[in-house]
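hi!! sorry for the late reply, been swamped w classes. u asked for the two structures so here they r. pasted raw, havent cleaned anything up. first the sequence of the first protein and right below it the tokens
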Amino acid sequence: MMYSKVMLIDDNDLDQFVNSTLLKKSGFVDDTIGFVSAIEALEYLETVEDDFPDLILLDIKMPEMSGFEFLDRFAKIPDSRRAGSCVYMLSSSNDPVDLQKAKESPLVSGYLNKPLNPKIIEDVLCPKADGN
């Protein structure tokens, strides 16, 4: 699987840099776009026409707007625009409530623990077509 654009939403600049670098080096990602604010990421998604990301990696604990608040607003973007996009929560939270909430959301494809690493990228985000 190949992603033309991955959006990273995380208030930590270092996490943004590391994750972007890992994704680009993986060979599965053409381009990344990062936002330290979930509000700014939503503003981008609500206005972008033909450059919607294929994959969104979303932190949970952020100031101003949490990852779950982001999802509430993201759900209001028309299905036709977000149809080809999947969302993974990428968080350091071990809170069982967060895990359950992510699992129950129809918008969330999975929950990944920080830090992102090459094995997660290869095994979870970019699995082989034959399922191995």
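now the second protein. again sequence first, tokens right under
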Amino acid sequence: MTRQSISLTKPNDKWLKEQVKSEEYTSKSELVNDLIRQARKQQKQIDWIREKLVKAEQGGFSNKTKEEILAQSKKSEAK
């Protein structure tokens, strides 16, 4: 595991210490790693949504009903 030195603001350091003190995490390092994992997961979701929005914008308008669009969407997700 790579060792890293970071500087924290007092409120952030206090919050990290409180999380460790409450035994939610065993160390500040564990907590920071978990926060980074969550941010990476969130970024993947944002990228996925962005990709879908770009694709939808490029697809133009549709004359389909909302029920038809929903059925098509569910069919695409099943693949």
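hope this helps!! also noticed smth abt the second:
The chain has three helices and no strands.
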